[in-house]
Protein backbone atom coordinates (compact mmCIF):
# COMPACT_ATOMS: atom_id res chain seq x y z
CA UNK A 1 0.00 0.00 0.00
CA UNK A 2 1.44 3.34 -1.00
CA UNK A 3 1.67 6.21 1.47
CA UNK A 4 0.05 9.41 0.22
CA UNK A 5 2.51 12.20 -0.56
CA UNK A 6 0.75 14.55 1.89
CA UNK A 7 1.48 12.10 4.74
CA UNK A 8 5.15 11.89 3.78
CA UNK A 9 5.38 15.68 3.75
CA UNK A 10 3.58 15.91 7.10
CA UNK A 11 5.90 13.27 8.61
CA UNK A 12 8.99 15.13 7.30
CA UNK A 13 7.75 18.47 8.65
CA UNK A 14 7.01 16.90 12.07
CA UNK A 15 10.47 15.34 12.13
CA UNK A 16 12.12 18.65 11.26
CA UNK A 17 10.12 20.46 13.96
CA UNK A 18 11.09 17.80 16.52
CA UNK A 19 14.80 18.15 15.56
CA UNK A 20 14.58 21.94 15.82
CA UNK A 21 12.89 21.69 19.23
CA UNK A 22 15.62 19.33 20.46
CA UNK A 23 18.37 21.68 19.21
CA UNK A 24 16.71 24.68 20.90
CA UNK A 25 16.34 22.71 24.15
CA UNK A 26 20.04 21.81 24.04
CA UNK A 27 21.01 25.45 23.45
CA UNK A 28 18.71 26.53 26.26
CA UNK A 29 20.38 24.11 28.67
CA UNK A 30 23.80 25.37 27.59
CA UNK A 31 22.68 28.97 28.18
CA UNK A 32 21.44 28.11 31.67
CA UNK A 33 24.73 26.37 32.47
CA UNK A 34 26.82 29.31 31.24
CA UNK A 35 24.77 32.06 32.89
CA UNK A 36 23.89 32.99 36.41
CA UNK A 37 25.63 32.78 39.77
CA UNK A 38 26.42 29.07 39.55
CA UNK A 39 28.32 29.58 36.30
CA UNK A 40 30.28 32.52 37.69
CA UNK A 41 31.36 30.32 40.63
CA UNK A 42 33.17 28.13 38.08
CA UNK A 43 35.02 31.10 36.54
CA UNK A 44 38.72 31.56 37.13
CA UNK A 45 41.26 28.91 38.02
CA UNK A 46 41.17 26.78 41.15
CA UNK A 47 43.82 27.07 43.84
CA UNK A 48 46.84 24.94 42.99
CA UNK A 49 46.22 24.95 39.23
CA UNK A 50 48.97 26.14 36.90
CA UNK A 51 48.30 29.65 35.63
CA UNK A 52 48.92 30.45 31.95
CA UNK A 53 52.47 31.55 31.21
CA UNK A 54 52.90 34.85 29.39
CA UNK A 55 55.30 37.71 28.84
CA UNK A 56 53.82 41.17 28.11
CA UNK A 57 55.12 44.73 27.98
CA UNK A 58 53.42 47.61 29.72
CA UNK A 59 53.11 51.08 28.16
CA UNK A 60 56.59 52.02 29.45
CA UNK A 61 58.11 48.98 27.72
CA UNK A 62 58.76 47.05 30.96
CA UNK A 63 58.34 43.31 30.49
CA UNK A 64 56.09 41.52 32.98
CA UNK A 65 55.86 37.74 33.11
CA UNK A 66 53.77 35.05 34.62
CA UNK A 67 55.00 33.16 36.55
CA UNK A 68 56.20 36.35 38.24
CA UNK A 69 59.70 37.19 39.41
CA UNK A 70 58.36 38.24 42.83
CA UNK A 71 56.92 35.70 45.23
CA UNK A 72 53.35 36.77 44.42
CA UNK A 73 51.54 38.40 41.52
CA UNK A 74 48.01 39.75 41.53
CA UNK A 75 46.42 39.64 38.08
CA UNK A 76 43.41 41.97 37.90
CA UNK A 77 40.80 41.38 35.19
CA UNK A 78 38.75 44.57 35.11
CA UNK A 79 38.63 46.15 31.66
CA UNK A 80 35.90 48.71 32.35
CA UNK A 81 34.60 47.61 35.72
CA UNK A 82 37.22 48.86 38.19
CA UNK A 83 35.93 52.44 38.35
CA UNK A 84 32.45 51.08 39.15
CA UNK A 85 33.82 49.32 42.25
CA UNK A 86 35.63 51.92 44.40
CA UNK A 87 35.81 49.46 47.28
CA UNK A 88 37.83 47.05 45.09
CA UNK A 89 40.21 49.91 44.24
CA UNK A 90 40.57 50.52 47.99
CA UNK A 91 41.43 46.84 48.48
CA UNK A 92 44.04 47.00 45.72
CA UNK A 93 45.62 50.08 47.36
CA UNK A 94 45.79 48.09 50.61
CA UNK A 95 47.59 45.21 48.86
CA UNK A 96 50.09 47.66 47.35
CA UNK A 97 50.62 49.33 50.74
CA UNK A 98 51.05 46.02 52.60
CA UNK A 99 54.83 46.17 52.24
CA UNK A 100 54.87 42.62 50.89
CA UNK A 101 56.51 41.82 47.55
CA UNK A 102 53.37 41.64 45.39
CA UNK A 103 53.35 42.63 41.72
CA UNK A 104 49.92 43.96 40.74
CA UNK A 105 49.02 44.00 37.04
CA UNK A 106 45.82 44.94 35.26
CA UNK A 107 45.36 42.57 32.34
CA UNK A 108 43.17 44.09 29.62
CA UNK A 109 41.15 42.03 27.17
CA UNK A 110 41.52 44.65 24.43
CA UNK A 111 43.21 48.05 24.04
CA UNK A 112 41.85 50.65 26.44
CA UNK A 113 43.57 54.06 26.32
CA UNK A 114 41.75 55.29 29.44
CA UNK A 115 42.89 52.42 31.70
CA UNK A 116 46.06 54.13 32.97
CA UNK A 117 44.40 57.54 33.56
CA UNK A 118 41.56 55.83 35.46
CA UNK A 119 44.05 53.90 37.60
CA UNK A 120 45.91 57.14 38.36
CA UNK A 121 42.61 58.79 39.29
CA UNK A 122 41.90 55.87 41.66
CA UNK A 123 45.33 56.16 43.29
CA UNK A 124 46.57 52.98 41.60
CA UNK A 125 49.30 54.34 39.34
CA UNK A 126 51.66 51.63 40.70
CA UNK A 127 49.55 49.01 38.91
CA UNK A 128 51.03 48.02 35.54
CA UNK A 129 48.56 47.91 32.65
CA UNK A 130 49.13 45.04 30.24
CA UNK A 131 47.47 44.43 26.90
CA UNK A 132 46.15 40.87 26.98
CA UNK A 133 43.65 39.29 24.63
CA UNK A 134 40.30 37.51 24.69
CA UNK A 135 42.25 34.24 24.29
CA UNK A 136 44.32 34.97 27.43
CA UNK A 137 41.15 35.79 29.35
CA UNK A 138 39.77 32.45 28.16
CA UNK A 139 42.97 30.68 29.31
CA UNK A 140 42.31 32.10 32.77
CA UNK A 141 38.59 31.18 32.42
CA UNK A 142 37.52 34.75 33.22
CA UNK A 143 34.33 36.21 31.76
CA UNK A 144 33.31 38.94 34.21
CA UNK A 145 35.11 41.50 36.28
CA UNK A 146 36.52 42.67 38.48
CA UNK A 147 38.13 39.26 38.88
CA UNK A 148 41.38 38.72 40.80
CA UNK A 149 43.85 35.85 40.60
CA UNK A 150 46.93 35.59 42.81
CA UNK A 151 49.77 33.59 41.20
CA UNK A 152 52.99 32.54 42.95
CA UNK A 153 56.51 32.41 41.52
CA UNK A 154 56.05 28.71 40.66
CA UNK A 155 53.12 29.67 38.41
CA UNK A 156 50.46 28.18 40.69
CA UNK A 157 47.17 29.90 41.46
CA UNK A 158 47.07 30.76 45.15
CA UNK A 159 43.56 32.27 45.23
CA UNK A 160 41.00 33.64 42.77
CA UNK A 161 37.52 35.09 42.78
CA UNK A 162 35.13 37.67 41.44
CA UNK A 163 35.27 40.63 43.84
CA UNK A 164 33.04 43.57 44.66
CA UNK A 165 34.45 44.82 48.00
CA UNK A 166 37.77 45.60 49.65
CA UNK A 167 37.29 42.88 52.27
CA UNK A 168 37.14 40.29 49.45
CA UNK A 169 40.47 41.56 48.09
CA UNK A 170 41.95 41.34 51.60
CA UNK A 171 40.62 37.79 52.07
CA UNK A 172 42.07 36.66 48.72
CA UNK A 173 45.42 38.22 49.65
CA UNK A 174 45.31 36.40 53.00
CA UNK A 175 44.48 33.08 51.28
CA UNK A 176 47.25 33.62 48.72
CA UNK A 177 49.82 33.70 51.51
CA UNK A 178 48.75 30.33 52.93
CA UNK A 179 50.82 27.27 51.98
CA UNK A 180 49.40 25.22 49.10
CA UNK A 181 48.42 21.76 50.34
CA UNK A 182 49.73 18.75 48.42
CA UNK A 183 46.15 17.84 47.49
CA UNK A 184 45.75 21.23 45.78
CA UNK A 185 48.80 20.78 43.52
Compact description:
The protein is an alpha/beta fold.
What's the mean pLDDT score? 84
- Count of distinct structural domains: 2
Indicate the overall shape.
elongated
- Biggest sheet, open or closed, and with what strands and sense? 5 strands, mixed
Tell me what portion of residues adopts beta-strand conformation.
15-25%
Distance N to C terminus: 69 Å
| Fourth-level CATH superfamily of the largest domain | Glutaredoxin
Strand order of the largest sheet: 5-4-3-6-7
CATH architecture of the largest domain: 3-Layer(aba) Sandwich
In the CATH hierarchy, the third-tier topology of the largest domain is known as Glutaredoxin
Our count of helices gives 6
* Radius of gyration from the alpha-carbon trace, in angstroms: 23 Å
**CATH class category label of the largest domain:** Alpha Beta
3D structure, described in words:
With 185 residues, the protein is α/β, with parallel strands linked by helices. Helices cover 38% and strands 20% of the residues. The protein folds into two domains: 5-35; 45-184, Glutaredoxin. The strands form two sheets. The chain has a five-stranded mixed β-sheet, covered by helices on one side. Strands 1-2 form a two-stranded antiparallel ribbon. α3 packs parallel to α6 (166-176). The longest helix has 30 residues, at 5-34. The chain starts with a helix and ends in a 9-residue tail after the last helix. Mean pLDDT is 84; it is low at 30-34.
Amino acid sequence: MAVPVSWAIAFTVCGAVACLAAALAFLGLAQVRLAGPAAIERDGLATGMRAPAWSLRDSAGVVHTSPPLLSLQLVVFADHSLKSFPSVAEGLREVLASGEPVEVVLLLKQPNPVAEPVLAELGLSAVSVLQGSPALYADYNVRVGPFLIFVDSAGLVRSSSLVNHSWQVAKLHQLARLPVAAAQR
